[in-house]
Design brief:
Blueprint (H helix, E strand, L loop, with lengths): L3 H33 L3 H13 L2 H8 L3 H15 L4 E4 L2 E4 L1 H32 L1 E6 L1 H6 L1 H11 L4 E6 L2 H9 L5 E4 L8 E15 L14 H6 L3 E3 L4 H9 L11 E3 L2 H9 L5 E4 L4 H5 L4 E3 L7 E9 L6 H12 L4
Parallel strand pairs: 3-4, 3-5, 7-8
Antiparallel strand pairs: 1-2, 5-11, 6-9, 6-10, 6-11
Helix pairs in contact: 2-3, 2-5, 3-4, 7-13
Length: 333
């Protein structure tokens, strides 16, 4: 005698088999419909013949030649197995079967028009907003110009910008909380595709009062690695580049200060808190006014690529695509 577990297992297998049969049947029906039901263009042509009583006028309405229209009607008649149109020197009129098929065709075309209107509404809703996530340097020093240019092209698109480090940008994109992202790290984060849109260089800087500002030779990597610095937080593109550059020299010393924005790091360095690592995009004014001094470093150039990124397999569309085009047309760095 079978156990209850065996009965449940047999029932489960029967359910699965039934599901497979239903799926196969549905697939077969779809394949048959594809071959048996005329395409939308043919149905629109038939409706035009019904309106005009003329194959030539119907052909002009749908934008094809009269011979092409005749060929399409004949093909539809073969497909359905019935005559649809009687042709004569006085014009073209629907057969009884043609009149019935025309009634069905009208419903299909109206449904297709409703489908198209809905799709346009979805596109309009998508194109009415753009959610951008960007790491701090790009958000502060590059994106404003790009977004002003986008505004000129798409004045009706509302743009929201979320700033954070590169790791946070990746998280927001993967959680579908942003449509386009910009990061500053060494590589494209996992789960994302991307393209380089600009280049940047990190610089060691200090206030003029700091001893490094008065040194005559370049700074060595070992000394840089051993010195507590004012730094961005872990997960930022700046930290990624610096960690990689100093990995063979014992890594970074414990930070003097660890701050969450480029502006905060710059303010701390200007105040004399200690040397800092900053993007050259962020410090042009401070270097020109001598509020900060660039410290040469021997044996390394801290360059990095700035990238636009998006979830793997989901190439930007609508406003995101336009923004990407603008970044590549107006490079920086």
């Amino acid at each position: 005698m079978s156990s209850n577990g065996e009965h449940r297992g047999e029932w489960h297998e029967e359910q699965q088999a039934g599901g497979r049969r239903a799926e196969a049947y549905g697939s077969d029906v779809r394949a048959q419909l594809h071959h048996r039901v005329p395409d939308l263009g043919a149905l629109e042509l038939l409706l035009a013949v019904a309106r005009h009583g003329s194959l030539g006028a119907a052909a002009r309405e749908v934008g094809i030649t009269q011979p092409a229209a005749s060929s399409r009607i004949r093909s539809m008649e073969r497909q359905l197995g019935v005559a649809l149109v009687d042709r004569s020197p006085r014009g073209s009129r629907l057969t009884d079967a043609g009149a019935l098929v025309t009634d069905w065709a009208r419903r299909i075309v109206e449904a297709a028009e409703a489908f198209d209107a809905g799709a346009q509404a979805l596109r309009g809703r998508r194109d009415s907003r753009l959610r951008v996530a960007a790491s701090m340097t790009i958000a502060e020093y590059l994106l404003p110009g790009w977004l002003i240019a986008l505004r000129a092209e798409r004045p009706d698109t509302a743009v929201s910008l979320q700033a954070g480090n590169s790791a946070v940008v990746a998280e927001r994109l993967l959680a579908n909380e942003a449509d386009m992202g910009f990061v500053e790290g060494l590589a494209v984060p996992d789960g994302l595709d991307g393209v380089v849109v600009a280049h940047d260089r990190l610089m060691i800087v200090a206030a003029p009062s700091h001893p490094w500002a008065r040194r005559r030779g370049p700074l060595g990597l070992a000394e840089l690695a051993a010195t507590p610095l004012v730094l961005r937080e872990r997960g930022s593109g700046t930290r990624q580049v610096l960690d990689a550059a100093l990995a063979d020299h014992g890594g970074l010393a414990r930070p003097l200060l660890e701050l969450a924005s480029t502006t905060a790091v710059k303010a701390a360095a200007v105040s004399g808190a200690g040397p800092a690592v900053l993007s050259e995009l962020a410090i042009a004014e401070e270097l020109a006014s001598r509020r900060l001094v660039a410290i040469p470093v021997e044996g390394v150039e801290l360059r990095r690529d700035l990238r636009a990124v998006w979830p793997t397999g989901h190439r930007p569309t609508g406003p995101a695509r336009d923004l990407l085009s603008l970044t590549r047309a107006r490079p920086a760095g």
